[in-house]
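G., the chain you wanted modeled:
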Amino acid sequence: MTTQPLPPVTAGRRHRLFALGTTALVAVSASAAAQQAIQLQPLSVEGARPAESLTVPDTETARRTIEQTPGAVSVVPNTAWRDTPAATLKDVLDYTPGVFVQPKWGEDSRFSIRGSGLSRNFHMRGVAILQDGVPINAADGSSDFQELDPTAFRYTEIFKGANALRYGANYVGGAINFVSPTGYDADSFSARADIGSFGFRRLQGSSGGSYGAVDGFVTGSWQEQDGFRDHSRGKSTRASGNVGWRITDNLETRFYFNAVDLQQEIPGSVTRQAALSNPKAAAAGNLVQNYQRNMQSWRVANKTTLKLGGTTFEVGGYAVNKDLLHPIYQYLDYEYRDFGAFGRVTDERQIAGHRNRLTLGVNFASGKVDNKQYVNLPGAGRGALLSASKDSSTTTVVYGENSFEVVQGVSLIAGGQFVQARRKREDRFPDATDTSGRNDYDFFNPKVGVLWQVDPAWQVFANVSRSGEAPTFGELNFTNVVLADTKAQKATTFEVGTRGRRPDYSWDLALYRMQLKNEFQFFDLGGGNYQVTNADKTIHQGIEVGGGWAFARGLFEGGTNPDRLWLNTAYTFSDFRFDGDRNWGDNKLPGAPRHYLRAELLYRNPNGFYLGPNVEWVPQAYFVDNANTLKTESYALLGFRAGYDFDEHVSMFVDARNLLDTKYIASTSVAAVANPNSALFEPGAGLAVYGGLRVRW
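Predicted structure as tokens:
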């Protein structure tokens, strides 16, 4: 008997019997999104393959481990998004409250956790992105999550806010870790083909297996789309995999590789009126200068795990090479070279009859960017060199955490991390302006929390935590006295919540208040020059509610494996605002909706088919500037999903979106002060239908 989460999304003609603690129950998932419900204890199922890797926990082990955190965390298995186009992070994280992911163009999205990175209008900042526990972020903290292929992963771990101490992450938004299959839990062969509206098509295949002490997994995908908007064509080719060697029963090393080739046209932001009246049109300047983002990257990594009794040692390292050709207002030519190392020790033992878990770790990241910017000549591409520099970053994080069970079911957790970072620019362009400079940052982030295991499937938690992050080069400009002195932003978070599961319902609730100092926001530097620098005080607070409810079963199919109706919801309330700012008073921070609701009602039949509607609702427009002068528009979208599992080897799905062809604003850039002519808005896609076929053995 081995462990597997409840409920499975698989709904075929086969029946599965599960046990929760000592209580037997029968369950068949009604929704892929239902997989995101919290499961606190392992469940047993006959015939499942065991997870044998020391370096990569299986989904259920990862769930049990992450739930030792006294804060808002979750694990989303791949069953939650495999019956969708899985074209962007939105498909992966759509039913995770507190996480805001909205499409921009192609595979790019506006991505924020608890209001992180709202002032970043390009690429991403504010969240640690990891693949198999290894950083995707550049050494200065910036990242491009388009390098990731959602179809390649077994599950995704989400750590919100200051709850990502397990990986030593210090970002205000937290961390997301995408975990690949290994040869132990991968299908021998798996393939999928997807097609859809706006010229979307994709082929993906993978294979895995083990032979003696060696196992391996490899996957590759090709994706292309014309795009909903003009000038939004894109294509990507990705490959990744890992090879593990079980040296002894207690020692394993695993090597990872990842290669990506992305080519994407950029339609650009437009005015509010244009977004709502002619959403397919690209910005005129983007057409004239042929805006694009083209990227090639490869990365290699190693992670080695040694277990000695109750003590686990993990060490590893990685190297990344990335080239970015990015014709926009100028022609950007960046070469990234990053490498890093990490180590972690986890010791679990009894102390005076009480369970204790101690974690100590260190992360080191170093990177260089060869930064060249040229004139972008309309119709001709690269022109004369305008600037050149070498940007170098190092970030070192030392962290520790201890969990002590004071009485049965109640654990006290205390921890902290010390962060030291350096940002240095070396001007390499022979002109009169010297853009060179160097900033050093160091700060300490403490944390205390309590975790109460009310019963085997119900937890209550609370914590007070500090997080902070140094600026990326996107927030630094050494030729400007204000921007050159940009400080690290820091946040203190107060959080309470609960998560749990019963046979027919689940819940995930968190309330938090984050008090920030020096948050990166747009300000007037004089002469109408608005740039990102430090605010004084800001507040991010909110409520995150997720849950599922099987409110009807046995409608047409009874017995021990009945059909059922499952309601899955994710609601996020966000109140982000300045706090007595000298420029903006108590204005609301721009860039994210105050209310966001995602819900799905799915009927699933044990004979293999499922169907049902879903909604996405932003009932209140939100501001796009600090001055609070310009808003988006509220919207509601209706969708419908259906699918059929022919047997355990073959399945298909249909996913229809925006059935009423609503014109709406999906995401925005932000500004200090906006007006009706400000080009800040990204239109959402119209009516779209996607379909896919998946086979596996």
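The chain is about 5% helix and 55% strand.

Shout if anything looks off.
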